[in-house]
Amino acid sequence: MSLGTLDELASSAERKSLSDRLEQLCSGQTDLFVYPVSDNVEKLAQNFYKQLRSKLQVRLDKVDIVPAQEESSKHYAHVDLNSIEHDDAREVGAEWLCLQALQELKIDEFLQSLGWVQDQVNTSLLHIISKAVYPSSELKTSQWISENTDVSDIIFNQHLNISRHQLYKSSLRLYAAKENIEQYLSTKTNELFDFQDKIILYDSMSFS
User: Fold this and answer.
1) Backbone angles phi, psi at 91, to 5 degrees
2) Would you tell me how many other CB atoms lie within 10 Å of the CB of residue 101?
3) What whole-number distance in Å separates Cα of residue 157 and Cα of residue 47?
4) What's the pLDDT tens digit per position in 109-147?
5) Can you give the pLDDT at residue 61?
6) What are phi and psi of 149, to 5 degrees?
7) Mean of per-residue pLDDT scores for the chain
8) How far apart are CA 47 and CA 57, in angstroms?
9) DSSP sequence for 106-131
């Protein structure tokens, strides 16, 4: 359908706004971020939309025009967005980022080289990530893992409730390997970031 010369719209921005508004009207949907349009654009959009519906029988609840025989197989429903509810929502963004960093450092392979079994490695990764994202006591951390985060799912591929006793054991195991882990991280970060170790001596003696 020709829209004419659109002399009423002085700028290309208004023409783009008219195009976007027509698309919204035809699809029966609104964008997540709705920008206001001028009264002139809205009036034109409504007028063209009525003409379009009249000529092409565009339905409010679909964009594409389908043959009549295909229409019977399609079902549409309008949803009240205010009626949508969600539950059991969990965080995973910062946790996933920490996991990527640990995998880049190959911490899991190093812990396995110490003789740790996979479950011990996974629990340690979970503990390290939890301390980085939510630094708190083992009791609070176990509650956070149970109620707020999906960190266990990205490591164990399922949501698990990790007890504070499991976290205590993981802390002791990590602390026992502290020197080995520090030495490994020092070497690994030098390789990844091309660091060069330097020794700097400071003379802190005071002469009066």
Assistant:
1) -85, 150
2) 12
3) 54
4) 999 999 999 999 999 999 999 999 999 899 999 998 888
5) 45
6) -125, 160
7) 81
8) 15
9) THHHHHHHTT--HHHHHHHHHHHHHH
Checking 95-101 for CB contacts under 8 A at 24+ apart, the result is 95/129, 95/133, 95/149, 95/150, 95/151, 95/154, 96/154, 98/128, 98/129, 98/132, 98/133, 99/125, 99/129, 99/154, 99/155
Is residue 65 scored above 50 in pLDDT? no
Q: 74 or 15, which is more confident?
A: 15
Measured distance between the N- and C-terminal CA atoms of the chain, rounded to whole angstroms: 93
**Where exactly are the structural domains of the chain?**
13-64, 93-193
Structure tokens at 93: 């963004």
In 42-198 the beta strands, taken as DSSP E runs, fall at none
193 by Cβ neighbours in 10 Å (0-12 / 13-18 / 19+) ranks as exposed
Please report where in the chains the tokens 């630094």 appear, as a residue: 135
Give per-residue pLDDT as tens, 67-101.
545 555 566 777 777 777 766 678 888 999 999 99
What six digits make up the tokens of 129? 């990530």
